[in-house]
Amino acid sequence: MTARRGARCAPLRIGLTGGIASGKSTVAEMFRSLGAPIIDTDVIAREVVAPGRPALDDIRERFGSRVLTAEGELDRAAMRLLVFSDEHMRKKLEEIVHPRIRDETFRQASAAGGPYQILVVPLLAESPLRHFVDRVLVVDCDQNTQVERLLARDTDTREQAERILAAQARREDRLAIADDVIINEGALDTTRKQVARLHDIYVELAKSGELQRE
Ligand code: ADP
Predict the structure, then answer these.
(1) Distance 52 CA to ligand 1 centre (A)
(2) pTM given for the model
(3) Distance in Å, CA 20 to ligand 1 centroid
(4) Cβ atoms 202, 12 nearer than 8 A
(5) Which burial class, exposed, middle or buried, applies to 9 when counting CB atoms under 10 A from its CB (0-12, 13-18, 19+)?
(6) Is 23 a pocket residue for ligand 1 (Cβ < 6 Å)?
């Protein structure tokens, strides 16, 4: 945990993370329905490269129009292919995109208010945003459940799903940074109850000001 005791006015920031298909969006929506502002870095990552935004101009300048679609949007498949096996290219792309994602996350967080707010950051363990949040909430489920959900939602084969999981941080590494854990393996109602309990805790913590920044 990175927070210090201090002023009572800044909202408590909760970093919500978890592996792919663990249920981050599902849990974030449950918090939203209880009134918490949600700042989703996946959504921000898509917005910063939208046509007309400076990041897309920089990407075109650096990588050429081969990574744009005919409509002038970022061709994600082409971009992925280009950076997949080339560390140097990947770094170049990250230099363009990451600072903008961070700045927009900071902007939205300071505008959002709330006694507490939820920042959804899929790769929080590896992200500098880890030092921006006061508390880490990990959405967890076993790997088989992740594979089943990926098969239902995104991927065609079990091998593909398992490859995606293997490329992510290990479950133990994610859990190691958790202050709170939601187990999202069973019925949605069971998850909703855990969200409601944490909501009460976060409201109380925010009131006490104990975990907030100076
Ligand atoms: P993430 O945002 O972590 O990738 P999602 O919240 O999108 O995960 O969940 C992945 C998929 O699993 C979605 O299709 C979602 O509806 C489904 N899902 C999530 N939690 C549950 C649950 N407890 N029971 C059944 N399906 C779930």
Answers:
(1) 32
(2) 0.90
(3) 9
(4) yes
(5) exposed
(6) yes
Phi, psi dihedral angles at 35 (to 5 degrees): 100, 0
Nearest alpha-carbon partner for 20 in 120, 109, 105: 120
Q: Which residues pair with 120 in a beta bridge?
A: 16, 40
- Residue 120 gets the label, from left (phi > 0), alpha (psi -120 to 50) or beta, of beta
Report pLDDT digits (tens) over 43-89. 999 999 999 999 999 999 999 999 999 999 999 999 988 887 799 99
Residue 22's alpha-carbon distances to 30, 98, 148, in angstroms, are 14, 24, 11
Tell which residue, 135, 145, 162, has the closest CA to residue 26: 145
Q: Kindly tell me if the per-residue pLDDT of 191 is higher than 60.
A: yes
Model confidence pLDDT, tens digit, residues 7-22: 446 899 999 999 999 9
Q: Whose CA is nearest to atom 12 of ligand 1?
A: 149
Cα 1 to the center of its chain, rounded Å: 17
Whole-number pLDDT of residue 185 = 95
